[in-house]
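Protein KTI12 homolog (Galendromus occidentalis), 259 aa
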Amino acid sequence: MPLVVMTGYPASGKTLRTEQMEEFFRMKYPDKKVMSVSESENLDRNKVFMDSKEEKELRGRLMSEVQRNLSRDSILIFDAGNYIKGYRYELYCLSKSVKTTQCTVALPVNVGSAWQRNSDRPQKDQYSRETFDALILRYEDPDPKNRWDSPLIIVQEEQVVPFEQVDAALFGRKAPTPNQATMAQPHLSTNFLYDLDRLTQETVDKVLKSPVDYVNRRITLPELSRLRRQFITYVKQNPIEDTNKIGPLFENYIKNTVI
């Protein structure tokens, strides 16, 4: 299904806009399935977003749910912060692998307005100040120059969602042609992307803690992140059935690549 990727600060109005778009698409396409995947369901946000391990697990579960529901025949809206550009790139690859379109809907808001909206929520749904500020600092703005963020539709705080523009972004253009790196692997478990993300990140953390065990020179986080992206792309082209091998293989990749 064509995919709408929501993105924005905490309490920027993503869920409200998602509901409005769901209503629009159900009215315009009564024969199509319209659904959303939300990060907020049964979520202790102040616990999850302040614990890197739990947050990675959440992202993995959400990615798997999006993957399960992606097809060319319906419409899926992903209602989440999606503040990491690398995560948005993974979503783009998923869409590309099933030969469907996607667009990004960004909701830029004033930080003060977002905090006020957060404060007006029921207590159980509020972000703490610490969590709110942390998510603001982590946010990586979408860029229309990036193919994974494009088409980028920006909806200002007081603006009505440009429904027809979103519709045209999904149904008025051809889907990108999948290449070998993004072709779907039907025999992979739905948790494969989560396992790949988790295990390679664990390896990066291990190397940063004790680089001398892996390489004979200083290595930086940006360099490891680049190697991790390269390795992930390779594994998608050459799937590993036994996910327990991902960590050791990535370690060997680092050792053999870093000179």
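The first helix runs from residue 14 to 28. The chain has two domains: 3-171, 192-257. ok done for today
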